[in-house]
Amino acid sequence: MNFLFPLIAVFIWSVNSIVSKLSAGAIDPAAISFYRWLLALLVLTPFILPGIRRQRQQITPHLGRLLILGLLGMVLYQSLAYYAAHSVSALFMGIIGALIPLLTVLLSVVLLRIAPTVGILFGSLISFAGLVWLVSEGNLPLLLSHGLGKGELMMLAASVSYALYGVLTRRWAIPLPIWQSLYVQILFGVLLLLPGFLRAPNVSLNLHNVPLVAFAGLFASIIAPFLWIHGVQRLGASTTSIFMNLTPVFTAVIAVLFLHEQLHSYHWIGGGLTLFGVILAQRLKTPLAGQKPASVDRV
Fold it and tell me: What are residue 264's phi and psi, to 5 degrees?
């Protein structure tokens, strides 16, 4: 039953894509970003803060790096997704989110000097072709003439931000317990999000948006990471990361059933090629130059 840990975590993150889409008409992006992490911070404080106080001397030297991680993972990643939700579908958000493992390993090749593999090379090319087909809606001349829309660029930037977050987490290997590290990152995230929150035109909470904030702050920010961490501990990072491939599948099913979004041929073709490229990069680990192969573990 250990597989249920990452499976449920991925399902929660898939539902969160739907929540992001629903939030577009219910609450300002700056407001839900701030409320989400503030709620997570408040819930975690009684459990994590005592340990933070005891280990403050060990934490202090790493505050700069924790600040950067908070910016990438808690501010840019989800905030950009909330803004993008105003102009892209939940289906698109789910497919782009599935690119994160591949983007992570591509950045690892550069920043961690991990040797590229045959799977990474061909997987990247296939995923790129799928992405082009997806964003062009199967009409390449239209993409060439109009370019990428603001929402598409935001989602791509969000995915790159989270991939960089994962790579830096691995590279720095900050010697702190996972939850203490996450707590400090969330604290920095709340502080960084505060100026945008204060400038937002409407930050009021109501019956329509409180459930969205609650799901994002509790399930997507606390419960899903908790389940994912346990999955990694029980199954290993390599096995657990494969479950991320279910993200676009779960998101598509939920979006069609509850948001009544339409699945078109370009979703099947573009999304299928994108996902196939990610799987190829995960499974085909033959080094290009007889070196140590790269890994696409979630980090």
Answer: -110, 170
pLDDT in tens, 5-55: 999 999 999 999 999 999 998 999 999 999 999 999 999 999 999 999 999
Distance CA 182, CA 262 (A): 37
CA–CA distance, 237 with 283 (Å, rounded to integer): 14
**pLDDT tens per residue, range 94-136:** 888 888 888 888 888 888 888 888 888 888 889 888 888 887 8
In the numeric block, which tokens belong to residue 146? 């109009």
Positive or negative, the CA dihedral 146, 162, 37, 95 is: positive
- Residues 159, 288: Cα–Cα separation, whole Å: 26
**Token couple for 112:** 């961690």
Q: What angle do CA 76, 80, 85 make, to 5 degrees?
A: 155
